[in-house]
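Structural biology now treats backbone shape like a language. To illustrate, our science desk offers a sequence and the tokens encoding its fold:
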Amino acid sequence: MDNIKTDRYYLDKITLGVEFIIKHTKDMSKEAFEENELLQDSMMFRLIQISENVAKLSDDFREANKNIPWYEIKGLRNRIVHDYGSVDMSIIFETITNDIQKVNELLKNIN
């Protein structure tokens, strides 16, 4: 039996990652986030996972859903992975408290 993973499979994984971030950072202050190294690592790991799954979506799928900032999502992964020791946590906080909400709304509109 073939193990062919579709765009829907990766989209579902992206959505689960986004929902995880929202669930675990709801109503969190920037100060609380900056004091919690475990949460910082967890959120960066989730952002990396989301980006890895974005990279696995077909070009046709990404092209058909241009309203989602696929390039920026992948770019954040590169910043986290390649500059891990010096990642600006204010950028991560902004991403997980504002940008991720917007991405979540856009993902909900994909059939």
Observations:
- The chain has one domain: 29-108.
- The mean pLDDT is 93.
- The first helix runs from residue 7 to 25.
- Helices lie at 7-25, 30-35, 37-56, 59-64, 70-82, 89-108.
